[in-house]
Amino acid sequence: MKEIAASFEQASGHKIQSTVGSTGKFYAQIKNGAPFDILLAADDETPARLEKEGAAAPHTRFTYAIGKLVLWSAQAGLVDDKGDVLKQGRFEHLSIANPKLAPYGAAAVAMLQKLALYGVVAPKLVVGESIAQAHQFVVSGAAQLGFVAMSQVYEGGKLKSGSAWVVPAGLYSPIRQDAVALEKGKGKPAVAAFLKYLQGDKAKAVIRSYGYDL
Description:
Elements: H1 2-12, H2 23-31, E1 38-40, H3 45-52, E2 62-67, E3 69-73, H4 85-88, E4 94-97, H5 103-114, H6 118-121, E5 125-128, H7 131-140, E6 145-149, H8 150-153, E7 154-155, E8 158-159, E9 163-166, E10 175-181, H9 189-198, H10 201-209
Parallel strand pairs: 4-5, 4-6
Antiparallel strand pairs: 1-10, 2-10, 3-6, 3-9, 7-8
């Protein structure tokens, strides 16, 4: 977002002020009148719901990225390339984002349940409010490993540090991430310009470089 916003500002003259948090929390804030013009969600359900409820501008919603779930540790060699570390239990804490608020957390729970591992790891779970906090738990050492977004730990197709297992896409529902103009942003030139820019080649190249599919 920082890269895309910077290039958009340079190209358009508009300014972007972004706030990062969980999709579920943003939904509640938007419904309570928060002054947001655009929502870039980590799912496709929340923007569709806001549109249905009249809190988002109709016909502005689109999928800007498809997220990938990764099991990651800041420690080299801890996470193997098949995720068997989950079965072996060689860790004290496993971080996930709150599955009720964050789509990546819901995907992690779905995957663990599909592999019949949820009951095994449940006592070791450390739950963050958002995918950013789940990642921070691993960075800080509060959890030895955690489920994060690929975009947080990969850059240019390479793992930045530690060890990781890219969870096979067939183990969870696709994390389709939608953008939508909100009711407060309807009719604003800067909003229309940014949403158009987000669908352009420059923004797509940045999104792809951080490990998302399009």
